[in-house]
Structure formats: structure tokens, C-alpha cells
Amino acid sequence: MAASPLNLFAADAWDRFVPYSGLHLVTVCCCLGLIAGLVALGRAGGHAHDKLLRRVLGVFALVYWLSYNVWWNRNGIDVATGLPLQVCDLNGVIAPLALLTLNRSLRATLYFWAFALTTQAFIQPALQFGPATPLFWWFWAQHSIILGYAVFDLAVLGFRPDWQDFGRASAAGAAYLAVVAPLDLWLGADYGYLGDLAPGQIPPFVAALGPWPMRAVIVVALAGAAFAVAELPWQIARQRRAT
Q: Residue 77: CB partners within 8 Å, gap ≥ 6?
């Protein structure tokens, strides 16, 4: 019999991750708590404090990203699964570079990719391994870094996206699509969830979108719609201030 979704003490709870279980809820709450702590730490200091903290966070995330990818490919690179070409793999580099450089295009890409795409890892994680395995910790740490840095950029550094930033992030997304879609076909991979894999080889929420290639079209359309939704609150706030 399957364990209760709220039972953290089932026999296999530490080896297997089940979405929408008690472990899922506790994990997301812990991640959000760490992000809130990061924001509180950033808001506690002045400009010099923020500059030092940005550097520390940037270097930490770059070292973490490199360590994770070396560990993942420690037995050799499988080009169909081991290349750092998922959106969150790239955002794992964009996030620290955005804080280190304060480049507008990087900050825009971080914001839209994090809130439109990386948040899905918290809502419907494509993860099967529990906390008894390193993959569990790698997964949640990587996504918490991305979302946490995006929140830090908003709450501490004062980034406010506009439609030009929407265009920057969309252009980055188009460039990603132009590179990854042909690679998926060539390698038989599923980077960006755009590949032609059988439903049993892809996350259920992607398989629910239907057969390929229409599934890939829907994924791209949903990403674009999510970008627009991520910009909408800022436009509403600007209109209210103007009136």
C-alpha cells in the first residue's frame, strides 16, 4: 500500500521523493525559509554590505554549479543527459553572473526564467530521489539558488522588470530554443523538455501536454505566456502609480 502523502516516516520516505507528499511540502517550506533569510541578510546592511554579499553569493553559486556538473558527470559525460543545457542549468550560471555584474540583460533573463520556469521545479519537481541520495540535495539547492538570487535582486537590489526586459529574456529564450531544439533531435535528448521522447521518459506534467511535436510547441507557448504573466504585476503597479 502506498504511504500517506503526509507521512514523512514511511519506510521509503528517505529514498524516494513523491511530488505533493509531506516531504515535498516540508522541503519547499525549508527552501523558502532560506530564501527569506537571504533577503533579510541583504536588507540588513548598506551599499558596501550589499556589494560584498553579491560577490560572495556570486562566487558561491559558480563554485556550486561547477561542482555539481563535475559530480554529475564523474563517470563520463552522456551527451543526451549530462550536458548543462536544461533551462535551470543555464540559469544556475546566469544567476550569479547577474549579481556579480548587475548587467541588465542577465538580470532580466534571471527574473523571467526564474519566476516563469524555475518556480515549476518547486510546484511540480521532476525528481524521484529522496534525501538519502545526493541528487535530492543537489536538485533543491540548485533551484533555491536560482529563485533566491532572483528574489534577492528584487527585494534587496531593487530590480524592476519592464517590457524591454521581457524582450531581453524572450530573446535569450529564442536563442536557447535555436540551439537546444536541433540538439535534442540530433542527440535524442530532452533538454528544455522539447525532445521527442516517449511519455514514460519525460515528467508527467510534460507528457500531459500531448504527443511530440505539438508538445514542444505548447511548452514554448506556455513559457512565453508565463513571461507575460511575470511582467503583468509590474505594469499594473506602474499604471496605478501613474494614475
A: 83
C-alpha cell at 109: 533573463
C-beta of residue 92 within 8 angstroms of C-beta of residue 118: no
Q: Round to whole Å and give the CA distance between 201 and 83.
A: 17
Strand partners, 16: 129
Amino acid in position 205: F
- What is the chain's mean pLDDT, rounded? 91
Quote the cell numbers at residue 147. Answer: 529563485
> Are the CB atoms for 166 and 228 separated by under 8 Å?
yes
- Domain parsing of the chain, residue ranges: 22-242
pLDDT tens, position by position, 181-236: 999 999 999 999 999 988 888 888 898 999 999 999 999 999 999 999 999 999 99
- Cα gap 172→161, rounded to integer Å: 15
Q: Specify the DSSP class assigned to residue 198.
A: -
SS3 assignment, position 129: strand
Q: What is the per-residue pLDDT across 47-67, written as a single tens digit (0 to 9) for each?
A: 777 889 999 999 999 999 999
